[in-house]
Amino acid sequence: MSTLKELRSALSGGGLDSRLVSIYGPGELRHAQSRLLHVISGFEKYFSPSGGGVLLASAPGRAELGGNHTDHQRGRVLCASISLDAIACAAPNGLGLIRLCSEGYGELRIPADSLAPDGEERGSTAALVRGVAGEIAALGYPVAGFDAYAASDVLSGSGLSSSAAFEVLMGNIINRLFCGGALSPLEIAAVGQAAENKYFGKPCGLLDQAACSLGGASAIDFAVPGSPDVEPIGYDFERSGHRLCIVDTGSCHSDLTADYAAIPAECCAVAAHFGAGVLREVDPAAFRAEIPALRRALGDRAVLRAMHFFGENERVSRQAAALRSGDFSAFLGLVNESGHSSAELLENLWSGDVREQPLPLALALARDLLGGAGACRVHGGGFAGTIAAFVPEELLPRFTGGMESVFGPGSCHVLRVRPEGGSIIAF
Question: What distance in Å separates the CA atoms of residue 89 and residue 150, rounded to the nearest whole number?
Fold first, then answer.
């Protein structure tokens, strides 16, 4: 492992330029250097290291390209890692303590020999750190004390999976320090999911962690519980002539738990009509034949949401095929189809007081600014938060300016699909 002095010299002198360009792209090289030098300085300030080896790690956020609310029904999704990421400088400390300083969240300490779930930590960063370390230790690896200074530009609460990026970041650090790099990206993703489920207290699926860990664009099929089928999609989004924009409407998710929970509950209620646990186990033709009975038993909204699932699940396969064949125009058409399905069938664009509808407003503005070009759709869980848009490069200034004139400066984030997932940048 390199010393702090050696890493700082490599970053400042261009010794890591090719590595950084491969992760962040040439346009972000200087910004990446600056951020990594910043976490090196933070590590040095908070932990007063002895001069031993350290590493630099990164884990990206993710974007949902297709498969809106399909994963909880064991469906298909199309996702991609993005250019925003969580980064850290870390090193073993020999103290038997996991010490983390994460910008914006303060410092925490966890005994490396006491990694069982702690009920008092549920919902906290400490729960995620303890969970990742505990799950890796449970696999038989000698997890010990280490120090880490972390920072992230993955927007919290925006559907870009900031918590999954953090879990994958911690997983990569521990994997390198104590496992000899033995864990695969999908195994690190599973560790992150278990940390959220068992320690943090959030019953999430594997989608977010897998997208952050794998890198690039991936089609993931969750048909077999615990064994997702992952297909990398080798499309070069840089040559599409479009940029991926995530528009943050500034609306809050904090009081929307009931809205989110109703979607899988209603989908599962439809599945139960057929003696199944989830909609993936139901034959679409059998579902269509039973719509009259389902309306009487469960109401129209449950039927509409099931219709969304069947259409969206099939649409993901067509999106992946379009990208594999290089037909970006067909892909954009399917993105728009997905957006209309979420709005009209899934009904996850607004909640509560119908006077406040930031997502429909953002989509309406996006379509007006795009003028029939590109594509847009709700991004992530919905009801509040963000939309995604693929914007032709020549329309980017107009699109960004128009969205930010309504939702505020910095609300439109221009991203790129990152080819590499959770990574050790240097060690």
Answer: 7
Phi, psi of 94 (to 5 degrees): 65, 15
Domain assignment present for residue 228? The answer is no
**How much is the pLDDT for 254?**
62
Name the 3-class secondary structure at 59: strand
What are 232's strand-pairing partners?
218
Backbone angles phi, psi at 379, to 5 degrees: -120, 120
Q: What is the model's pTM?
A: 0.89
Q: What is the DSSP string of 151-216?
A: EE-SPTTTTS-HHHHHHHHHHHHHHHHHSTT-S-HHHHHHHHHHIIIIII-----SHHHHHHHH-S
d(CA 74, CA 61): 22
Which tokens is 298 given?
Answer: 């469960």
N- to C-terminal Cα separation, the chain: 5
Beta strand extents in 284-421 (DSSP E only):
375-379, 386-392, 412-415
Domain around 31: 4-59+84-196+421-426
Q: What's the CATH code of the domain at 309?
A: 3.30.70.890
Within a domain: 68: no
Whole-Å CA distances, 347 to 303, 340, 350, 360, 381: 12, 10, 8, 11, 11
Let me know whether 282 and 136 are in one domain.
Answer: no
Please tell me the predicted confidence (pLDDT) of residue 185. Answer: 95
Between the CA atoms of 180, 186, 187 and 189, what dihedral angle is there, to the nearest 10 degrees? Answer: 110
- Structure tokens of 339? 């957006």
Contact by Cβ (8 Å): 77, 66: yes
Residues 22 and 93 in one domain: yes
Residues 256, 156: one domain? no
Give the gyration radius of the chain's Cα atoms.
22
Q: Are residues 278 and 395 in the same domain?
A: yes
* Residue 124 located in a structural domain: yes
- Range 151-184 burial, b when 16+ CB lie within 10 A, else e: bbbbbebbbbbbbbbbbbbbbbbbbbbbbeeebe
Low-confidence ranges of the chain (pLDDT < 70): 253-254, 353
**Which is it for the CA torsion 373, 379, 384, 386, positive or negative?**
negative
Same domain? For 109 and 167 the reply is yes
Domain contains 215: no
C-alpha to C-alpha distance for 47 and 27, rounded to whole angstroms: 32
